[in-house]
Amino acid sequence: MFCKYYMELTLLDAPGARCLDGSPAGFYHRRGRQDRWVLYLEGGGWCYTPAQCRHRARNEHTGSSLEWPRTWAGAKFGPLSDSATINPEFHDASHVFVKYCDG
Fold first, then answer.
1. Which residues make beta-bridge pairs with 33?
2. N vs C: which end of the chain shows fewer Cβ within 10 Å?
């Protein structure tokens, strides 16, 4: 079994922590052991021209936090999984998934 505990969204209230469309940047987190952490930085690539950045700013997956759900079930595999079978070393760690949205 996996994803017993959902990850909660935190949106940042800081002037420099913004997505391409100006919405707040954020991350998902799930509390676990306080002495063990997994920090996962989502990749997304770079926009090289103003036109590419404008296009990404209209896409909720690469340039905006407006459509992000308040909770996320987490990963079914890899370092964010809460399954002891799939992720024996880090299933009970505190997990942080930093969403990509800045181009």
1. 93
2. N
